Structure prediction request, 222 residues.
Amino acid sequence: MPAFLPQVLIDGLKIVIIDLNLAGDNALVIALATRSLPARQRRVGMIVGAIAAVALRVLITFVAVKLLDVEFVKLAGGAFVLWIAVKVFADAEDQVEASAKPAHMWQAVRYIVFADITMSTDNVLAIAGASHGNLPLIVFGLAVSIPFVVLSSNLLVMLINRFPWSLYVGTAILGEVGADMMMTDPFIVRTIGPSPAVVIAAKTAAVVAVLIVSWILGRRKR
Prediction:
């Protein structure tokens, strides 16, 4: 038993560090998805979205290894992240209203949950490996990250409101994440075997395309 307790603590610390290191993209999605909500609904949306995403991430941890080996999974997931980037950009450009329909908040929660699960396959794999299949450790590590993600999301919303140009930076980051997922899909690796230069070119093209489409949709919406 004395030898078991330190190992549990070490594994728990590993999970916390892994999750915090990889939580930046998730905080960015939450910030963009909830920016146009009034303050109260924004807080509720952030908390509910983060908790729901963590709960679902726990459920898929044990099948993540097999999922990553299935062709087209990451390809579809990356395409979905690109769509999320465009959609949340258009929504985030809306002016914050004094009140908003409840459906708007739940739409933001859906974006948060789907994007989190889509972008967290590598995160889930790392956590599953560090926990050695210990479910309580997985739950602990993921739960610890909730306050960090929500706090980071609030700070990002403040940054975007203060410096509107940072909205483009956030959208570009999501575009890069989506393209990276697509280029590392087993089908793409097997059939194309993209070189580092091709991967960089694909990411650049995805970022440019996402920004252009987002800007056009934002103008139409306004």
Observations:
- The two ends are 63 Å apart (CA to CA).
- Residues 4-221 form one domain.
